[in-house]
Amino acid sequence: MSNTIIELKDVTKVYIESPFAGVKSINLAIRQGAVTVISGESGSGKSTLLKLISGLMSPDTGSVLFKDEIVRGPESRLIPGHEAIKTVAQDFNLNIYAKVYDNIAGLLPNTNLKAKDQKAYEVMEFLRIDHLARKRAVDLSGGEQQRVAIARAIITDPEVLLLDEPFSQVDTLVKNELRADIKRMARYLGISVILVSHDPLDGLSLADEMVILKNGIILESGVPRHLYNAPGYLYTAQLLSNCNVLTADEAQELGISSYKDTIAIYPEWIRLEEGASLQFIIKDVFFKGSYEELLLNLNGVKLIAISTDPGKYTKGMQVGGRIERFVGF
Ligand SMILES: Nc1ncnc2c1ncn2[C@@H]1O[C@H](COP(=O)(O)OP(=O)(O)OP(=O)(O)O)[C@@H](O)[C@H]1O
């Protein structure tokens, strides 16, 4: 496929120390210029996959291709990694006592100092850290250090940028700004971004394509909206939503008949309305700011629903509800 920049063909990497860990039989095509988010629970193999893609680790079997050329592992390269693929690791790898400018510009050759300076400022402006140029990295916040680390990675014009848990050290506000910057990098610089995250929100709001990993295998992949609304696996539904999980018998109590063993109902799929045929008792109300989560009970079946009308419902009240959608597994 012409717009595939990275391709993994039947890639397996098993750690000798723990033979059940690692990744197994991975087939994956990464689209050029897209933001791909790899999501999965802790230990599912996300970081292993990133190391294999960057060439920092070699697969036991199978191959990783960059533009149809094999990405060679550390055994066959003096400097590990592929020059067109750059990784921003969780520890940022900054020279923390050096100035921001030197951290970034230091990666360019001294053959043309004017061009070096110009390029460094271009990248710093793009990531909105040019005002920090003369500060030492150690004096920056986590979000600012993250931007410096990204600037270091993109200053040499890589075609692929790998980000390992880029939001782990930043608060929600900075996280939203960083998400926007990552999208801009893909759109305006044409960099293909592959991002690893255990927070499903990163994938839902950022990814063009999302890959769901479980125990080292790819369960499914697709555009976030589709994966969210029509998950093929309960694991995906639980990763992406705080969903209610019921047995077939419990679902029957709610008037849902299905031949599937397990039924998932997202909280927003429960419509609260007067006079609805299902009458729930509110067991608890959890304030969430702009909305509330209601813990509902009907004949022992417990469900979390959402109310966007904070204060309307209180513990002990009876409330009518209708299940608008469910997914069976
Ligand atoms: N160098 C190693 N030696 C042995 N086992 C390893 C090594 N690196 C990772 N593993 C194991 O491989 C599995 C996958 O690890 P990996 O770090 O890729 O998962 P992850 O999804 O990135 O996890 P997390 O979200 O916790 O960072 C885990 O069970 C881990 O313990």
From TrEMBL:
GO terms for molecular function: ATP binding; ATP hydrolysis activity. Keywords: ATP-binding, Nucleotide-binding, Transport. The keyword Isomerase does not apply. Coiled coil: none annotated. Residues 6-240 form the ABC transporter domain. It holds the Pfam family ABC_tran. InterPro entries: AAA+_ATPase, ABC_SmlMolc_Importer, ABC_transporter-like_ATP-bd, ABC_transporter-like_CS, P-loop_NTPase. PANTHER family: SPERMIDINE/PUTRESCINE IMPORT ATP-BINDING PROTEIN POTA, SPERMIDINE_PUTRESCINE IMPORT ATP-BINDING PROTEIN POTA. This is ABC transporter ATP-binding protein. It comes from Pararcticibacter amylolyticus. The lineage of its organism: Bacteria, Pseudomonadati, Bacteroidota, Sphingobacteriia, Sphingobacteriales.
